[in-house]
Every structure is written in C-alpha cells, then in structure tokens.
Design goal:
91 residues; alpha+beta; 2 helices; 6 strands; 32% helix; 29% strand; globular
Length: 91
C-alpha cells in the first residue's frame, strides 16, 4: 500500500483494513467512503480478511449503520469471498 498525504492509498474502489484494530479500521473506512462518495463511485470493496472474524464483525456492523452505505454483502468467490465486504454506496 502506498502512502499518500498521510493516508493509505487503497485505490479508488478498495479499502484494505487487514491488521488494524477495530477503531482504526472504522476511521480508515469512513475516510475511504467519504472519498469514494465524493468521487461518485457506486460500489466499493472493504478488505478485512478472515482471521478470528472479530474485525469482519466490527466492519460489517459499522457499514450497516453507515450513512454512505445503501447496502453491503459478503463478497462472491471472485470478489474475495467472505474476506471482503462489498458496499453499494448511496447515490
């Protein structure tokens, strides 16, 4: 991952929070969703990995309450499976 202006650059449609604590991941996801919404993206992917499942749970609970997310779902096999969450952004 490349550093850009103090933030991690994930690419336009992907946010990788593997290895972060829950509160760190939430802050990173919120910054990412704000940039994605401003860029007019319709769908993004949050990569949280499998691990113990704790980060995945925190991420999905947060996305379920996020004003940016119209809906979210586990990734399909070709999208990264259950190690990612696909988010449809509000238009």
């Amino acid at each position: 991952r490349a550093q850009v202006a103090g933030l991690v650059d994930h690419g336009a449609d992907r946010c990788d929070v593997r290895g972060l604590y829950g509160d760190e991941a939430i802050r990173e996801i919120d910054r990412f969703l704000d940039r994605a919404a401003c860029a007019g993206l319709g769908r993004v992917v949050v990569v949280h990995g499998h691990g113990t499942g704790a980060l995945k749970k925190v991420v999905r609970e947060h996305l379920g309450r996020s004003p940016y997310a119209a809906s979210c779902r586990p990734g399909a096999d070709l999208e990264g499976g259950d190690g990612v969450t696909v988010v449809e952004l509000r238009g």
